[in-house]
Design a protein that fits this description.
Layout lengths: L1 H12 L3 H10 L10 E6 L2 E7 L4 E6 L6 H16 L3 E6 H6 L1 H13 L2
Parallel strand pairs: 3-4
Antiparallel strand pairs: 1-2, 2-3
Length: 114
């Protein structure tokens, strides 16, 4: 478990610009009442953003996630996280940059039905 904490801390320190942008909108319960954590361990993975109460994970995917091997890896990760009881939303860096309001609306809509 200590290994996950150390890795999560390093990921928080080296977040992408898309992750930084969405984090500014999610942190400090700014999205309704939901408490989000960033780079948080869930099962054997570290997820980009999670609200434990809402059982929702948001993964921000860059260009590297479009190769066949990465798509397969992401699908396997999603299955494990869903088996843990989470809904997993995947959004692209482009969506965050060009349509942050739409991304936040998708997140909020997903949380309403939990």
């Amino acid at each position: 478990m200590e290994r996950f904490k150390s890795r999560a801390q390093k990921l928080r320190e080296s977040q992408t610009s898309a992750e930084a942008k969405i984090w500014q909108a999610l942190r400090n319960r700014q999205l309704a009442r939901w408490k989000f954590r960033r780079q948080h361990p869930v099962d054997r993975y570290i997820v980009d953003f999670v609200t434990l109460d809402g059982k929702l994970i948001v993964e921000v995917d860059g260009v590297t996630h479009s190769s066949p091997s990465e798509v397969e890896r992401d699908e396997a990760k999603t299955k494990v996280l869903e088996a843990c009881g989470f809904l997993v939303l995947r959004v692209s860096n482009t969506d965050v940059y060009e349509n942050l309001e739409g991304v936040l609306e998708l997140i909020q809509t997903s949380l309403r039905f939990e």
